[in-house]
Amino acid sequence: MRNSFAIAMAVLVTTALIGGVAGTAAGAQPTISIDGPTAGAQPAVGAAGATGGGPAQTDGACGFPVSATDATGTTVTLEERPERITTINPSAAQTLWELGAQDRVVGVSRFATYLDGAEERANVSASFGASVERVVATEPDLVLAPNSSAADVEPLREQGLTVYHFPAATSIDDIAEKTETIGRLVGACDAAAETNEEMYDAVEAAEERTSGVDRPAALYPLGGGYVAANNTFIDAIMTVGGTENVAADVGSGYPQLSDEVILEANPELILVTDPEAAILDTEPYASTTAGTEDSYVVMNVNYLNQPAPRSVIESTTTLSNAVVELRSEGGESTDGADDGDSSGNGTATDGADDGSSTDGADGNETGLTAADGNESDGSAGETGAESPGFGVVAAALALLATGLLARRE
Prior knowledge:
Blueprint: E1 31-34, E2 66-69, E3 75-78, E4 85-87, H1 90-98, E5 105-108, E6 122-123, H2 132-137, E7 142-145, H3 150-157, E8 163-165, H4 172-186, H5 189-209, E9 217-219, E10 221-223, E11 226-227, H6 233-240, E12 244-245, H7 259-265, E13 269-272, H8 289-292, E14 296-298, H9 301-304, H10 309-329, E15 334-335, E16 349-350, H11 390-401
Parallel strand pairs: 4-5, 4-7, 5-6, 7-8, 9-12, 9-13, 13-14, 15-16
Antiparallel strand pairs: 1-2, 2-3, 10-11
Helix pairs in contact: 4-5, 5-10
């Protein structure tokens, strides 16, 4: 076993390539209007930043009909509460489970099967993206399409389906906004407000946990030289979790860095989703401070790579605990999984999930590897190649570089 700072999540999930990068969705920020006796003003959405109170929920504004303008500029109208909901990316599915609306979900992508009971829903995935035929067969009242699924939206609308397309989520506030919007669309406003409150409490706890320690220089490598940089959901997680993302100054999204740039950045801590942290045995990572000191934190790929409330809660808790341990102890590792609580005493462990070899994360719904990445920029995303291994991830990243982005948000 490595002598490392690997914090394992309590629940290991089926593997996913690695989630991370999806092209930024174009279009106006979504707006919602409410008709009828329950009408009320809906707060504007679109706040950016890692922290903040998030959009407030308006009491009594959860009736139907409701009209919402999505990221494509299309106004979507629901005359009544949708009873059959299909999600074509895992982050939206994760959010519906958090809101207690899972009983109305009839279709999910194959990358959402880690959710309790999701395997009983129809699988609407094609070999790449969503299958129009499978989605239509679920007879949905509403289809939720995160930003990395942009190419699927129009084909579904051409079939007469009601599709709401979300913009990229690159910050914690974006996640809160998305959660609130989903709550409004499905008639679960109170649950959305409670979920956002829990998320912001976890963010505050993570920031307080690391407020007295030096931020380690950190990096989240996706394979093939690709990394999570600025203006991504992962960067927001890294910031809240108490690290300094060394790729943040390099650029936005998920750029491909040369070995020389990575060596110059010299991260002290590497985020991985592979419990073996195999990437630290490869160059240039092996020659960084993180590589020479076996300093890494194992993140749950389903959470790290899916921009949704539970992802924020679990990922910021795991990372902040690892940072505290890194700075306080010098890192004696133990075998076993960390319970991921917010006590700040996360135990370093070997054994979590290493995004380079897992299959089912919603990644950041962004899209770099057959995943659904950050729902934000165009690289990796919610993924899923069934334990493909690091080489497969690198190959997937190469495909992404040529414009073949996977949709897994």
